[in-house]
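Schema walkthrough. Field components (list of strings):
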Amino acid sequence: MRTVRIVAILCDDVGVTMIAVENPATEEVLGEIADSGEAGVNQAVAAARAAFAAGVWARKLPSEKEAILWRIGDLIERDREDLALLVTLETGKTLKESRGSDVGGSADAFRYFAGAVRRIGGRTIAADGPFSVASQREAMGVVGAIVPWNYPLCLAAWKIAPALACGNSVLLKPSELTPFHALKLAELLAEAGVPPGVFQVVNGYGHTTGEALARHMDVDKISFTGSTRTGRRLLLASAESNLKPVSLELGGKSANIVFGDADPKAALRGALWGIFSNQGQICTAGSRLLVQSSLHDEFVDRLVKRVRGLKMGDPRQDDVVLGSLISKQQMERVLGYIKTGKAEGANLVCGGAREGNVGCFVQATVFSGVKNSMRIAQEEIFGPVLSVIRFETEEEALAIANGTSYGLAAAVWTSDLKRANRMASALHAGTVWVNSYNEFDAAVPFGGVKQSGFGRELGQEAIEEFTTVKSIWTAQ
Ligand code: NAD
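Field assembly_structure (string):
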């Protein structure tokens, strides 16, 4: 077993709150971190502002910034196993998942945005009068990046990489449940050449450290990924402080729609991994599986057979595909929803219970006969619980899919290209996959509509999130 050096936090403040961090798969304490709180945030914001004002990063040559961001990608790959192990120890997810989605996804983001540095520009504008008018995109200043625990490294990189590419100083607030990988990442950024003060980690609780960041008068932007509930608080914090722009990547209740003419093997794989990747703790989880009547019974039977064969256990083992949930609290929440599903009259066809009595393992669970009005079809469970809903027609499928307060993602499985196009246009979601599920790429914008949030991460669109536009009028 590899060991990982965990960066120690030096804490001179007396009376600082320490947070114990557990490995949810074993319930062992991994270590402690200090809650930065308001004092820590004030200190970090001052350093970030000073670095920004001094121009140590913002005024570096674009080609230098590009080289440093690319190097970060290389260093992430060099230390891939350490980072993956840290993420697995903190989250309970499988090492395979940590290596692929967290490590792979974060290296890809730094490399993509290395390339974006030299594409940040403006335009010349034909305005009336004796002027030449141009617009330019400029760094915002100090950016607060607040991220959740489910894909902690990757989601942090989705914010840090574009924010740095645009010349900002960045303060990362990881979840209090997953703080250590972020410290390792900070080491790598420093090694790559990011100057002091330009990137810092402020660990701590949401209601203390997160709130202090969100309410700080000298933070110019908050980029948030997390729950809709916290998203609302951040908008309030902005309204009650300096009206900083806030972008929100929130929850979802995505519809994975399988038509009778779909390739059944591919659709089955998509249904399975759409919900059970990362034990269902993924914002785009295909947690509502809509299956057309003509295919329904056979499809559900085959799905359940596959689900029963999924190996759950020690997330560090190569053959394990289902690891632990993030915490006891999350496990209780998920088990509570399973109880609700039964009480609402849905058919529990497999799973439905905790696995073992150590760690936060919940069996892969499938409900059939679900009605879209049920709570298990409307509320984000964020666990390995699939709600199967039967439908007859395309119109009905569309009405069910759009019948939610969320709008993060959706998928359509069909061999009819015209239907695929019709559905892709009519689905009210930030991402639609056709005959695929949970595909991501740093070049492709990602975000939600309705209560899944607003703003876009990744792609050229992310540059707009971390810059302001200045118009310059020059009299001729
Ligand atoms: P959460 O909202 O509880 O916490 C997210 C982050 O916000 C954490 O760092 C937390 O400490 C911080 N926070 C909490 N309260 C805060 C406050 N008052 N002020 C400032 N910061 C605060 O979410 P979670 O439980 O960590 O993550 C699960 C949620 O994240 C799910 O709803 C999931 O759908 C969502 N998510 C969305 C996406 C996406 O891209 N749309 C991706 C992953 C997860």
